Write the structure tokens for this entry.
Amino acid sequence: QSVLTQAPSASGTPGQRVTISCSGSTSNIGNNFVYWYQQLPGTAPRLLIHRNHQRPSGVPDRISGSKADTSASLAISGLRAEDEADYYCAVWDDRLRGWVFGGGTKLTVL
Amino acid sequence: QVLLQESGPGLVKPSETLSLTCNVSGASISTYFWTWIRQPAGKGLEWIGRVYNNDILNYNPSLKSRVTMSVDTSRNQFSLRLISVTAADTAIYYCARDGGDFWGQGTLVTVSS
């Protein structure tokens, strides 16, 4: 069972806006930066969001991140077929003294 | 551009030691934290641990008794050793820069006799 809780699945139609949530606690999300990764089948994860809402170069601005208290969210607007992937949140946990990942959310584009 | 490449045996026998190396190019191994992450087939990501210059080591509490990480500054690479492996350690192993901005392609390690 993951320290961070994500819904196992999400879906949307092309053009829609989808939000993926990540719930934690004061020892992790409540006190540290949240990171989001996209993993396409058969590939290594790719960083989408760092420090709660910062986008690395090359990540489109239709992808955004936010954090409030002990929860974080990843939003994808203008949904495309290429967005179909697994999405993971991650954060440093002060109590465990290590990184923790959410269980992942599989996004399906209908 | 920072590139990472994992190397090591793809098959390890139960009770033996898993050893992997990650070669880093485009960044100095001495300047950052470096991380190992694994992913069993069809499952999520699991952080194994991270190392900084052999000075700072943080390990996943669930694996701490079996894991050792180290840095070789002369070769600009870092390594993972996991002792007493079982079938539950079968996974794709990734090396990455801490924070996950750069990842290796991953290497499948199977634990089987």
